[in-house]
Design a protein that fits this description.
Length: 184
């Protein structure tokens, strides 16, 4: 199997204490690092959300409401724990919720047998990416312990959505279970 790890929007704005903090993001980062260090992946892509520079429709209101966050270089940067990996693997910027909106992501996905999905925010960019991948006919491994949401309730809801597409479109799994299967 050719596996692509898609790490969605692991930016400082989602760290503990940041404006859009996600729960247990530190543990999620460590699990993503386990995947990155495992030597089992064929390809890795990081994405980051950047507010649209020429917003259309409701994105104008989004830009207006979150201007202080959108213009803060630190908040929009990839988390320091993951920065060393971005020297080895590409980081693509997007101004939509779904990472599948990025042409390079679509091209890499087309070459993969499966996409391992990790990152933030479960109920926003991860969910949008999950649905786009499913619509494209891609097998998605929803890495539940490598995905952070803003509350346990949201994480549970999105995991249930991912599970509802099992077993044809999705498989909900953990980093440990994936690595255990890959080492056999």
């Amino acid at each position: 199997m050719k596996d692509l790890l898609l790490v969605v929007d692991m930016q400082n704005v989602y760290k503990e204490g940041a404006p859009w903090a996600c729960r247990q993001v530190g543990a999620r980062v460590r699990n993503i690092q386990l995947l990155l260090d495992s030597g089992t992946l064929d390809k890795v892509i990081f994405t980051r959300f950047d507010a649209p520079s020429e917003p259309q429709g409701t994105w104008r209101a989004y830009n207006d409401e979150y201007v202080s966050i959108n213009t803060d270089g630190y908040l929009n940067a990839i988390m320091p724990e993951l920065l060393p990996y971005t020297k080895r693997y590409p980081v693509y910027s997007k101004s939509a919720y779904s990472s599948y909106a990025i042409e390079e992501v679509r091209e890499a996905v087309a070459e993969a047998d499966r996409v391992l999905l990790g990152g933030v925010v479960a109920e926003c960019c991860v969910l949008a990416t999950l649905i786009s991948l499913i619509d494209a006919g891609v097998k998605v491994l929803y890495m539940q312990d490598a995905i952070a949401g803003q509350s346990p309730e949201w994480e549970d809801r999105i995991e249930k959505i991912a599970t509802s597409f099992s077993s044809i479109h999705t498989e909900v799994t953990t980093v440990a279970d994936y690595l255990s299967c890959m080492r056999r």
